[in-house]
Design a protein that fits this description.
The complex is a heterodimer.
Chain A (H helix, E strand, L loop, with lengths): L2 E3 L4 E5 L4 E3 L2 E3 L6 E7 L6 E7 L7 E2 L2 E6 L4 E6 L8 E9 L2 E4 L3 E6 L1
Chain B lengths: L3 E4 L2 E4 L4 E8 L5 E7 L6 E7 L2 E5 L6 E7 L2 E7 L7 E8 L11 E2 L3 E5 L1
Parallel strand pairs in B: 2-11
Antiparallel strand pairs in B: 1-3, 3-8, 4-5, 4-9, 5-6, 7-8, 9-10, 9-11
Classes of the chains: A mainly beta, B mainly beta.
């Protein structure tokens, strides 16, 4: 089975600054997908960004980008120009076939 | 409109009660899932339905009983639950053959269940 590790239970960032959330995973598969999900207080988990493991180019979505290091099995999320609305739990996840594995989450606080 | 709607939003039930959670998706997805979310633990996959057929059941106790009458609706029937079953129950859907969610899930907002 795969494991996904988020070593930072809590993080904080000043508004307009940049923050990086860490994620490592363990898989023996060569074909897989990686995701970051955001869960605000409304509780709905929202897909932030998706990376295909066979693509070397790092995925970006507006202020959100990833640093995908396949050899190191690392998949960190960078949030630039942080906004108050970015405050939420962030979950890293990996997918192989029909198996989805989630980390335990990082709680992000944005300080005005 | 999130595309995946869960009701009720909150539920308090006694250990001898029977209740049901409902999930509805309007995205045309062909797979639906039940997850259990507990504090400080990874999401736990409970059930997977693909094209209305249950394709996965992760050793969930029989006090949880899923039902998928069609590709848009998913239920989780609850009976004789235990206090440790208190959690957030999330429904999700995805597009892909036999529940292969390579493009990720769309989640509902969950039902916060408290068993007293």
């Amino acid at each position: 089975a795969q494991t996904v590790t988020q070593s930072q239970p809590e993080m904080s960032v000043q508004e307009a600054e940049t923050v990086t959330l860490s994620c490592t995973y363990d898989t023996s598969e060569s074909d897989y997908y990686l995701f970051w999900y955001k869960q605000p207080p409304s509780r709905q988990m929202i897909l932030v960004i998706r990376q295909e493991a066979y693509k070397q180019q790092n995925a970006t979505e507006n202020r959100f980008s990833v640093n995908f290091q396949k050899a190191a099995k690392s998949f960190s999320l960078k949030i630039s120009d942080s906004q108050l609305g970015d405050a939420a739990m962030y979950f890293c996840a990996s997918n192989t076939g029909n198996q989805f594995y989630f980390g335990t989450g990082t709680s992000l606080t944005v300080i005005p | 409109e999130t595309g995946v709607t869960q009701t009720p939003r909150h539920l308090v039930m006694g250990m001898t009660n029977k209740k049901s959670l409902k999930c509805e998706q309007h995205l045309g997805h062909n797979a639906m899932y039940w997850y259990k979310q507990s504090a400080k633990k990874p999401l736990e996959l409970m059930f997977v339905y693909s094209l209305e057929e249950r394709v996965e059941n992760n050793s969930v106790p029989s006090r949880f009983s899923p039902e998928c009458p069609n590709s848009s609706h998913l239920f989780l029937h609850l009976h004789t639950l235990q206090p440790e079953d208190s959690a957030l129950y999330l429904c999700a859907s995805s597009q892909g053959r036999r529940g292969n969610p390579n493009y990720g899930y769309t989640f509902g907002s969950g039902t916060r269940l408290t068993v007293v």
